[in-house]
Write a structure and sequence with these properties.
InterPro entries: AAA+_ATPase, ABC_transporter-like_ATP-bd, ABC_transporter-like_CS, ABC_transpr_LolD-like, MacB-like_ATP-bd, P-loop_NTPase
Organism: Nocardioides currus
Pfam family, one: ABC_tran
Strand content: 15-25%
Number of helices: 9
Low-confidence stretches: 1-5
Number of domains: 1
Oligomer: single chain
Number of strands: 10
CATH architecture: 3-Layer(aba) Sandwich
Shape: globular
Distance between the termini: 42 Å
Helix content: 25-40%
Protein name: Peptide ABC transporter ATP-binding protein
GO molecular function: ATP binding; ATP hydrolysis activity; transmembrane transporter activity
Radius of gyration: 18 Å
Largest sheet: 6 strands, mixed
CATH superfamily: P-loop containing nucleotide triphosphate hydrolases
CATH topology: Rossmann fold
């Protein structure tokens, strides 16, 4: 279905990308990081964005999360088109509508786990919804660690704190950038299961950049990028089907 250039996306779509390009440099030195990407990110789904190094997956996520801007095209979060927002509106959008989980946790070392979780609300001078806060804490399973500082937590516990921080403000969409990249396989599986349950049990929309077929198997949908374009996608993935899809789009050596 085709819509007008400035028509708001339907409510069941949390984020929408339309013909998004991102270039760096000029002339012969120009690099096309994104080359006309069009994508709907469905509300309540857990989506993985995959692709080889340099495929554009991190650039796509950063443009969707209002951390970067495209050269042309449109990105919508809910009914807001990012290109039409002023700096103050973008700041509010990042604070209220977008959650972010980083590979490196990005916790404040001098704050307790609880203080880290509610930090975005504290900065905005808002009190968190205590009922939802309790739900998030139960979901991530760190209630007994709320008084601990990051250096008193394992890597897996730190990442669960970071996930809780992203969820507690009830954002429209959560972006996770290689969230298990610094974790062992057991801790990584716990965080991935947490993200999956956040989508399935609480209707949270989650988009994860990953290179790991096992991580991708936790999601509802895998989108594969190559050379800045979407080349394939897969629903209800498992490890083997993800490996098969990526292999199909990997150039043969020699």
């Amino acid at each position: 279905m085709t819509t007008g250039a400035h028509a708001a996306p339907p409510t069941q779509v949390a984020a929408r990308v339309r013909d998004l390009t991102k270039t760096y440099g000029k002339g012969d030195a120009m690099v096309r990081a994104l080359d006309g990407v069009t994508l709907d990110l469905v509300a309540g789904e857990f989506t993985a964005i995959m692709g080889p190094s340099g495929s554009g997956k991190s650039t796509l996520m950063h443009c969707c999360a209002a951390l970067d801007t495209g050269t042309s095209g449109e990105v919508w979060i809910g009914d807001q088109e990012l290109g039409g927002l002023k700096d103050k509106e973008l700041t509010r959008l990042r604070r209220d509508e977008i959650g972010f989980v980083f590979q490196s946790f990005n916790l404040v070392p001098t704050l307790s786990a609880e203080e880290n979780i509610v930090l975005p609300q504290s900065i905005a001078r808002r009190k968190p919804d205590r009922e939802w806060f309790d739900t998030v804490i139960e979901t991530v399973g760190i209630r007994e660690r709320l008084g601990h500082r990051p250096n008193q937590l394992s890597g897996g516990q730190q990442q669960r704190v970071a996930v809780a921080r992203a969820l507690v403000g009830r954002p429209t969409i959560v972006f996770a950038d290689e969230p298990t990249g610094n974790l062992d396989s057991t801790s990584g599986a716990e965080v991935l299961d947490l993200l999956r349950r956040s989508a399935r049990d609480h209707g949270q929309t989650i988009v994860m950049v990953t290179h790991d077929p096992v991580a991708a198997s936790y999601t509802d949908r895998v989108v594969l990028l190559a050379d800045g374009r979407i080349v394939d996608e897969l629903r209800d993935p498992d490890r083997d089907s993800v490996l098969e899809m990526t292999k199909k789009h990997t150039p043969a050596a020699g």
